[in-house]
Amino acid sequence: MVLREEAKLVKSPNAHTQYLIIPAVIARDSQYPFKDAGNVQIIVDPTHRAMVIVPTKGVSVDVTDKGIFINMSEMSDKKISEECRRKLREKIAEDRKEIAKLKES
């Protein structure tokens, strides 16, 4: 299940920095991947006006004119159930096929 909730971007009054406020309902959820806080990658896709935030390690992201593709094959989180792992492997295989098709065109 995908977690979805409206969040807020707040601009610093003294700099060009913006802060993303993660709602508690997301941060407290057992599926939330950033509980330990740390470094993340922020990928901005201006074509689709979208932003993706992923862990710095274990995840690669491809941005094409067709969309954003996330590959988590390197992730090894022991908290993920076997059912989740199976679904993740299936999704990764589908994404790889889609990326290959996009690269061909």
Written description of the protein model:
With 105 residues, this protein is of the alpha+beta class. The chain has 2 domains: 1-32, no CATH class; 39-104, no CATH class. The chain is 26% helix and 29% strand. It has 2 helices and 6 strands, in the order ββαββββα. It has helices at 24-27, 82-104, and strands at 8-11, 18-21, 40-45, 50-55, 60-64, 67-71. It has a two-stranded antiparallel sheet with strand order 1-2. Strand 5 and strand 6 (67-71) form a beta hairpin. The protein starts with 7 loop residues before the first strand and ends with a helix. The model has no long low-confidence stretch (mean pLDDT 79).
The radius of gyration is 16 Å
Instruction: Supply the number of structural domains.
Output: 2
**Order of strands across the biggest sheet?**
1-2
Beta percentage is: 25-35%
Oligomer: single chain
| Number of DSSP strand runs | 6
Shape: globular
Distance between the termini: 32 Å
The largest sheet is: 2 strands, antiparallel
Order of helices and strands: EEHEEEEH
The number of helical segments is 2
Unreliable residue stretches: none
* Average pLDDT taken over every residue: 79
Based on secondary structure, the structural category is alpha+beta
Q: Residue share in helices?
A: 25-40%
